[in-house]
Amino acid sequence: MRILLIEDSARLRELLCETIRDAGWKIDAFATAQEGRLTLERADYDLLLLDLGLPDEDGIAMLKSLRSAKVQMPVLVLTARGAIDERIIGLDAGADDYLAKPFHNGELIARIRALMRRAPVTAMPTLEFAAIQYEVARSRVTCAGSEIALTPSEKGLLELLLRNGGTVVPKPKIEHALSEFGDEKSSNAIELAISRLRKKLEGHPTGAVIETIRGVGYMMREVRG
Predict the structure, then answer these.
(1) Are 77 and 98 in contact (CB under 8 A)?
(2) Which residue in 10, 21, 48, 120 has a CA-CA distance of 20 to 30 Å to 113?
(3) How far apart are alpha carbons 108 and 70 in whole angstroms?
(4) Is the dihedral angle over the CA atoms 49, 52, 54, 58 positive or is it negative?
(5) 0.85 cut: is pTM over it?
């Protein structure tokens, strides 16, 4: 899962990024609405964490414009504006949830999980391919009922391959999906990640293999018989 954070406090951005990464998710963080908008034009996200007191645009105005533009991803507002009438304004503007500062990191993670469970099935499904099942919201991978222990980056790679099961995923798409802005993955790093994932899957009756399409990318292919 990949999250976008728009928060003008550098210290809070740092703390939230650490919390999100510890939960096993990717996060890109920016300080202004303009940076957030530009990022949304270049990448897809599963969730937006939005501060309302941004330096260049009020968060409510940004939220309204995103909803007017048919941006459907869940939005969790993080703000010091905690009064009831302010919460109502945020929810009416299109927020899916509203968390007043200061808040406990555990509650933030729980609210994110809750939003992902309520997200459209097409966005956060249980991905299935051959005997592999990946419950995206719970970040849980199983095969024939047994859980497969994977690192967060391995789960991200597996998710991408499962979402595109039976079709080739180009290397640039993998590089982008597994990277955060300013920390792009090299082609060699992708090859190593694929190798590690293959080894972990080999110990289970997955009924699938990760096939290398030379010069193009990789494909999750079902093995029959």
Answers:
(1) yes
(2) 10
(3) 25
(4) positive
(5) no
Question: Per residue in 99-131, pLDDT tens?
Answer: 999 999 999 999 998 888 776 544 556 889 999
Tokens for 161?
């391959």
Report d(CA 56, CA 37) in Å as an integer.
12
- Contact between 76 and 97 under an 8 Å Cβ cutoff? The reply is yes
pLDDT of 181 over the 90 cut: no
Q: Are 124 and 136 in contact, with CB atoms under 8 Å apart?
A: yes
Note whether 218 and 224 are within 8 A (CB). no
Q: Where are the beta strands (DSSP E) in the chain?
A: 2-6, 26-30, 47-51, 75-79, 97-100, 126-129, 132-135, 140-143, 146-147, 169-170, 208-213, 217-222
Q: Which residues pair with 146 in a beta bridge?
A: 143
Tokens of 28: 């890109």
Max Cα–Cα distance, the chain, nearest Å:
62
- Predicted confidence (pLDDT) at residue 219 exceeds the cutoff of 90: yes
Distances (CA, A) of 93 to 48, 76, 96: 14, 12, 9
Tens digits of per-residue pLDDT, 131-152? 999 987 778 899 988 999 998 8
Q: What percent of the chain has pLDDT over 90?
A: 55
